[in-house]
């Protein structure tokens, strides 16, 4: 089993891990307070949702009593920007995404175009139109590099789910016979690589904390980093019995993880 003593950065999923809807989960504040007291430990919120930028999440967290800087949050959209800057510098991008995501790309000096791009990028676009899909399929058919921000089929919302980017990926594949060349978000290693590059921290000092086996825990396995399951969201102990995806650690909530970290310091 991987050793928690070596972990310097805890990546926190948000909905189901730190809060549920608009309600802060038990133990979340305790975790934040504990990390602030411990030397050499830090955390970063990591979300697959690329339809919103970090400022949306900062506003939501502020309503719960937390004032965090933008650097405390990384979305799959930001991770995609890091990937493009490293792999395709100064290339023209056709982006299917919300105005929020487009603004994030432009602020990072990514060159966006509607015509003859070098790369096609698909984000979670809640303003999706048929024209956007048509253009995307045309560009994908021409064998241009095709990148998706994350693979989620559904996005959790109050009272249920809304369709996410996964259905659009399936649409494009049905029309073009191509899947994305790269998918950045959890459970893929690329999003952990983006964190590692941005913060200059090695993989063996990173842990992923979340409530979903197929995204949060799976990214831990795929990136070979420590994975920590909290039982405050989607996954129950009974779900683990028949799952091939198994976490390195299981805690009732973030507060219980905080208690463990304080014990390790004593």
The low-confidence parts are none
Secondary-structure element series: EEEHEHEHEHEEHEEEHEHEHEHEH
Fraction of residues in H or I helices: 25-40%
Given the structure, what is the number of helices? 10
Strand content: 15-25%
* End-to-end separation: 21 Å
Keywords:
single chain, 266 residues, alpha/beta, 6-stranded parallel β-sheet, 5-stranded parallel β-sheet, 10 helices, 15 strands, 39% helix, 20% strand, globular
If you had to describe this structure to a student in words, what would you say it looks like?
Helices cover about 40% and strands about 20% of the residues. It contains 10 helices and 15 strands. It has helices at about 30-35, 55-65, 75-85, 100-105, 130-140, 165-175, 190-200, 215-225, 235-240, 255-265; strands at about 10, 20, 25, 40-45, 75, 90-95, 110, 120, 145-150, 155, 160-165, 180-185, 205-210, 225-230, 250. A 6-stranded parallel β-sheet has the order 5-4-1-13-14-15, sandwiched between helices. It has a 5-stranded parallel β-sheet with strand order 7-6-8-9-12, with helices on both faces.
What is the element layout, followed by pairings?
Elements: E1 9-12, E2 19-20, E3 23-24, H1 28-37, E4 42-47, H2 54-63, E5 73-75, H3 76-87, E6 92-96, H4 99-107, E7 111-112, E8 119-122, H5 130-141, E9 146-148, E10 154-157, E11 160-163, H6 165-176, E12 182-183, H7 189-199, E13 206-210, H8 213-223, E14 226-230, H9 237-241, E15 249-251, H10 254-265
Parallel strand pairs: 1-4, 1-13, 4-5, 6-7, 6-8, 8-9, 9-12, 13-14, 14-15
Antiparallel strand pairs: 2-3, 10-11
Helix pairs in contact: 1-10, 3-7, 5-6, 7-8
């Amino acid at each position: 089993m991987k050793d928690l003593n070596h972990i310097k950065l805890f990546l926190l999923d948000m909905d189901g891990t730190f809060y549920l809807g608009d309600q802060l989960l038990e133990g979340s504040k305790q975790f934040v307070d504990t990390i602030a007291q411990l030397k050499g430990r830090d955390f970063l919120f990591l979300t697959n949702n690329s339809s919103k930028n970090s400022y949306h999440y900062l506003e939501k967290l502020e309503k719960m009593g937390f004032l965090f800087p933008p650097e405390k949050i990384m979305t799959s959209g930001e991770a995609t920007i890091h990937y493009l800057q490293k792999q395709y510098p100064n290339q023209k991008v056709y982006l299917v995404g919300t105005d929020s995501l487009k603004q994030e790309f432009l602020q990072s000096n990514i060159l966006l175009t509607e015509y003859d791009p070098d790369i096609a990028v698909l984000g979670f676009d809640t303003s999706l139109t048929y024209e956007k899909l048509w253009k995307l399929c045309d560009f994908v058919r021409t064998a241009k590099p095709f990148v998706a921000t994350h693979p989620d089929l559904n996005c959790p919302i109050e009272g249920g789910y809304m369709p996410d980017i996964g259905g659009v990926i399936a649409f494009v594949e049905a029309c073009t016979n191509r899947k994305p060349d790269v998918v950045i978000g959890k459970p893929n290693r690329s999003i952990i690589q983006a964190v590692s590059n941005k913060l200059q921290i090695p993989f063996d000092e990173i842990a992923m904390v979340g409530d979903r086996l197929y995204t949060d825990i799976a990214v831990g396995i795929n990136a070979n980093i420590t994975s920590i399951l909290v039982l405050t969201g989607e996954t129950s102990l009974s779900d683990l019995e028949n799952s091939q995806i198994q976490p390195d650690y299981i805690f009732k909530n973030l507060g219980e993880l905080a208690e463990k970290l304080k014990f390790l310091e004593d």
